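Lab meeting, item 3. Inverse folding demo.
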């Protein structure tokens, strides 16, 4: 049953302090920014409570700030702004590519990086990228700030390692080391407005002899959470990618646990995951 908007309360803090204070209430309000997922849920009659906290007016959380070591994305930075940022496109091309796959332009103009993280969907387009880039999420509450590596943030299906009074303030992404090459691909029924069947982001670095010295393989829509394929990564380390590819594909079975659902079936997803890894190796090694 849909809730009439007149029965809902919207809080609109202008500062971080005001927002964090609101989260100390015995029944904390539901944080929103772009609201792209919330509006769909409300239209479907799914209730998320009667009080909401609009974070969109907290200006420091809108910023995209670069330094010599990486970029800090404010939680309410939109995907349209992320993909338009010249330094992101140059230094973090997989992030720019993922940002361009989040729905169509109107969605990208509202949807935020913090919202994509907080939603914690295993199909979230930016989440494999954050895993592959070793991102760190900045959480704030009235008690202070703490940093959580993205590898530790996702604890289960749509659940995060966050306290009830915490908000996502920013995400920090270090620039990859010189020579590291990244790859991103989303497979869906169409290019826009499509939830992924499989999303994949990888980062590879090589030593002077062409052997893998750094590797991250991150998949979305392949388990209850976005997940790194750590067994497949271990196969590549110290080996030339092409020589290790077959064994790495076999190791994916230890890392990925896809399900059958309305978008695809598990067998198809496993096959696509393998094909994406094969394509990635061709691209990052120049064997296109």
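The presenter then showed the designed sequence:
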């Amino acid at each position: 049953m849909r809730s009439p908007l007149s029965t809902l309360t919207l809080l609109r803090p202008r500062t971080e302090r005001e927002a964090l204070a609101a989260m100390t209430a015995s029944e904390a309000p539901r944080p929103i920014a772009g609201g792209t997922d919330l509006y769909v849920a409300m239209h479907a009659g799914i209730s998320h409570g009667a009080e909401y906290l609009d974070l969109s007016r907290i200006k420091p959380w809108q910023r995209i700030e670069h330094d010599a070591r990486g970029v800090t994305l404010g939680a309410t930075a939109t995907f349209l702004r992320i993909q338009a940022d010249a330094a992101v496109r140059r230094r973090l091309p997989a992030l720019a590519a993922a940002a361009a796959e989040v729905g169509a332009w109107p969605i990208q103009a509202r949807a935020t990086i913090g919202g994509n993280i907080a939603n914690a969907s295993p199909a979230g387009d930016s989440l494999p990228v954050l895993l592959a880039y070793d991102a760190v999420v900045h959480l704030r509450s009235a008690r202070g700030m703490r940093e959580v590596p993205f590898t530790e943030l996702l604890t289960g299906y749509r659940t995060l390692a966050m306290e009830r009074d915490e908000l996502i303030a920013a995400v920090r992404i270090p620039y990859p080391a010189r020579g590291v090459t990244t790859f991103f691909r989303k497979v869906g029924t169409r290019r826009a407005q499509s939830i992924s069947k499989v999303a994949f982001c990888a980062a590879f670095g090589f030593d002077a002899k062409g052997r893998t010295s750094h590797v991250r393989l991150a998949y979305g829509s392949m388990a209850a959470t976005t997940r790194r394929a750590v067994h497949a990564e271990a196969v590549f380390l110290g080996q030339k990618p092409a020589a290790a590819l077959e064994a790495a594909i076999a190791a994916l079975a230890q890392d990925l646990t896809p399900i059958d659902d309305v978008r695809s079936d598990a067998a198809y997803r496993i096959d696509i995951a393998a094909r994406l890894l094969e394509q990635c190796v061709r691209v990052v090694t120049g064997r296109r």
